[in-house]
Amino acid sequence: MNTPSPESLGWYDATKFTADKLRLMFWSRQMWATHSQKQKGVTNIGTTTTESGSEDEVVVAKKGKSRAAAGINVTMLFVVNEAGKPIDGHRATDIRDHARSIWKQLLNNGMAPKKWKTDISVEINQYYRCVHYN
Amino acid sequence: MYRYNMAKEFPELRLCENGWKADQIATDNYSGWRGLRDGKDKVKKESNPKQESTDLSNISPIIDATAPINMTAPINVTAPTNVTAPIDATAPIDATAPIDVTAPTDMTASINTTAPLNATVSPVHKRKPSLDIGQDTIKKARVADTIDVDGQENEPVDNTGDCCFLFGQHAHAVHRQCQREFYHEYTEEFYD
User: Fold this and answer.
1) pTM, full prediction
2) Chain B closest CA to A59's CA: distance in Å?
3) For chain B, what are the domain ranges?
4) Which residues of chain B lie closer than 8 angstroms to A32, CB-CB?
5) A53 touches B at CB < 8 Å
6) Angle of helix B135-149 versus helix B172-190 axis, rounded to 10
7) pLDDT by residue (tens digit) across B95-149?
8) Least CA distance to A123: which residue of chain B?
9) What's the angle, vertex CA B135, arms to CA B132 and CA B137, rounded to 5?
10) Rounded Cα gap, residues B26 and B22, in angstroms
């Protein structure tokens, strides 16, 4: 059995969006790098979008858990919706927790690497194919 | 597959090229998570250590006794020792005699150091010092000798060197003589 294709998940095709939209969504890593370079030295007033779509504007003042508890997304600003609005801190926490659950599974199966590399998914993919589809 | 799992749960992560956003999340968070996991594992292991047998072979002795020391004579720790009387270094020092380490040492006694020292103590002092003794210390010892030879008594003795370990603070009179001989020998052998 083959691994489900990205298309079956409804992966978005870049051709469906305008260039401006793609830039707003940080479609490529380069777009995000350019954006974050411009943001250096700028005081952040965190604007987050909740799942219901309402916008909250919160002045970023404290660090770490207090900001996460207030629903402020600090480190995952590249994860945005189609309108280009960053997800809120709660959503970011959910994503992080889910990622950790995957890593924990890898660790329990002796597949967790010491360091995460961009091409690590090749090895992990092979593992998943062996365990789940063969 | 990691990308697939992430994108399946969170549609926002599909809005990118080659799933780089899921990768970026891993890059930013994985090392921290892994470090915490490793730390927890270490704490677990430390809180449940296996009982290990005590291996005394790895314990190095404080004093490296390379020269033979005669310890056949019993050490008397009850009888008081009178060291107020002048000590004559011309008499041979008997290292086999009992040593009392409980009585207070009286340093008021005068010491005659003009006479040659008895060679019976030399085996102990021929040892290489365990402490790092530099040229300054040796020079200091020579000055003290000169003063002493000229008749000034009871100069403070520098307590560095092997003698301190061997005789302890209750045998200063003996120690002083020994230290003098020790430095002479050491200087001739290693520096002259």
Assistant:
1) 0.46
2) 23
3) 2-47, 87-190
4) 24
5) no
6) 120
7) 565 655 554 545 554 545 454 544 444 444 444 444 444 444 444 444 344 334 3
8) B1
9) 70
10) 6
